[in-house]
Design a protein that fits this description.
Helix content: 40-55%
Mean pLDDT: 90
Structural class: alpha+beta
Oligomer: single chain
Strand order of the largest sheet: 3-1-2-8
Number of strands: 8
Radius of gyration: 18 Å
Distance between the termini: 12 Å
Largest sheet: 4 strands, antiparallel
């Protein structure tokens, strides 16, 4: 079910204005800063940084912006120290939500997240209240085009450690264990494949549909407002929004 949900999320984001691209680059920039400060500016020796660079390229972030961010992070250790925090709760209709934040002020971030959950009919819960409904996975999406041979791609992915390979109408989805993500991603890249997206994500084990239009409206507003927050990196949920 993960691919269907993931693809619908990507299409939903693409429907937003171009301003969203700037926010996406800002979020990836935070990850570049954190990875650089934790492991250094050389992607060959800093696997985390190498993965974030691949994520940035998949999002069409300009190469000069990537290099500039890494150089700045390496040269200025006084840049904001972000910490990664996960918040969990339920949205309208019982949809499970995990919010991934990267913030330099956890009190501000927690307060803002709670405000939106309360405002749009959700319930922010304790750590662990919904995470059992998700599984951390490496997720790689490749656009399905006529020049890609399915069997060849599947063989390359599986041989380098992919756990699952799903063929959909518009894309191929490759799932990995988190520890194998870097190896699979790098070898696919070396074999000439380009990604729609590539990263470690919280993948819902099952998804649910909503029958109540009001719940759908409120849940959409909740997700949109959370995703618009500067401190938020990702919002994961088990709603099948198609």
């Amino acid at each position: 079910m993960s691919g269907h949900s993931k693809w619908s999320n990507i299409k939903h984001r693409k429907e937003k204005s171009d301003a969203e691209k700037g926010k996406l680059f800002s979020r990836i920039g935070k990850e570049l800063v954190m990875a650089t400060k934790q492991g250094g500016p050389d992607p060959e020796s800093n696997i985390k940084l190498k993965d974030v660079i691949a994520k940035a390229k998949a999002a069409n972030m300009p190469n000069e912006s990537i290099l500039r961010t890494i150089k700045k992070a390496a040269g200025d250790m006084n840049l904001d120290n972000y910490e990664e925090i996960y918040y969990e709760g339920y949205g309208p209709g019982g949809v499970a939500i995990i919010v991934e934040a990267m913030t330099d002020n956890r009190n501000r971030t927690a307060g803002d997240i709670r405000h939106y959950f309360d405002r749009f009919g959700g319930n922010l819960g304790q750590t662990g209240c919904v995470s059992f409904l998700f599984e951390k996975k490496g997720v790689i999406l490749i656009e399905r085009t006529e020049d890609i041979d399915v069997e060849t791609l599947m063989t390359v992915a599986i041989n380098y450690g992919a756990e699952d390979f799903n063929v959909q109408d518009e894309y191929f989805e490759i799932l990995t264990a988190p520890a194998d993500f870097s190896t699979v991603r790098e070898n696919l890249e070396n074999n000439g494949y380009h990604f729609i997206s590539a990263g470690i994500e919280m993948v819902p084990q099952t998804t649910i549909k909503l029958d109540n239009p009001k719940d759908e409206e409120m849940l959409t507003k909740l997700i949109d407002n959370l995703e618009d927050m500067d401190d938020i990196q990702n919002v994961y949920y088990n709603w099948d929004r198609e």
